[in-house]
Design brief:
The protein is of the alpha+beta class. It has one domain. Strands 1, 2, 3, 4, 5, 6, 7, 8 and 9 form a 9-stranded mixed beta sheet that branches. A hairpin with a 6-residue loop joins strand 4 and strand 5. The longest helix has 13 residues.
Length: 231
């Protein structure tokens, strides 16, 4: 679901195609490929996030996104990571989020009155509030950093498993949760058996600092941040 970049080609030039479909061999010219674009377009104030897209998601209801797949969410762009997603777990922080009003308010200080207030409100039905651990992860599939929030009651049950993977690799899966009245998919965290290339420390450090420094209030995408908040 990423927006494709369109390349303008002068009409006076007869293009020749390389094996990868490029009009000219960019590598030979020393021009950065699209993989290198993230360094400049993904450097905003807020990190992208990983989200399990259940049947309750609006995008899944409309058929625009596969049900029970993980999404890499950046702004309004949702990229399918598949039913399972391998990640490197780098760091964590506490997070509470209140989505009940016009402005979505986040707190990262578990000892603050704001955090405790949101935590208390989250116990109410359809409160619009969530709390739990949030992790900074690296996704080798698309070579991106993102956050992963275990903010619902069923997601928090996997917090210990996720915490055990700090500085290690984890595979994000999903599991069916059933009660007498409802059933839904929730995150399931397992050790990762796949091998992948670890990003250089020089690339991790700025993302870690951004993750550690984020605090106070934050406005996020209301429709999809609320995914699974009641459970």
């Amino acid at each position: 679901m990423r927006t494709k970049l369109k390349h303008l080609v002068a009409t006076a030039v007869t293009p020749s195609f390389s094996d990868d479909g490029a009009l000219i061999p960019l590598g030979e010219l020393g021009i950065a490929k699209q993989d290198d674009l993230a360094a400049v377009v993904d450097s905003g104030d807020y990190l992208p996030r990983i989200q399990l897209m259940s049947a309750a998601s609006q995008l899944c209801k409309t058929g625009e996104f596969p049900i029970n797949s993980y999404a890499f969410v950046q702004g309004q762009d949702y990229t399918d990571l598949g039913k399972e997603a391998d990640v490197l777990v780098i760091h964590w922080r506490s997070k509470a989020i209140d989505m009940s009003g016009d402005e979505i308010i986040s707190s990262y200080d578990a000892e603050s009155d704001l955090f405790k207030s949101i935590q208390t409100k989250s116990g109410g039905k359809d409160s619009g509030c969530m709390y739990g651990p949030e992790y900074l992860v690296y996704i080798p599939k698309n070579k991106q950093f993102a956050t992963f929030f275990l903010g619902s009651k069923s997601a928090r049950r996997e917090a210990r498993s996720m915490h055990q993977r700090l500085s290690k690799a984890a595979t994000l899966k999903s599991a069916l949760i059933e009660t007498k009245s409802f059933s839904w998919q929730a995150p399931k965290i397992t050790p990762c058996s796949a091998s992948f290339e670890i990003p250089a420390i020089e690339l991790i450090k700025p993302q870690l600092e951004k993750f550690k420094d984020e605090k106070g209030s934050n406005v996020e995408a209301p429709a999809e941040v609320a995914e699974g908040r009641a459970r």
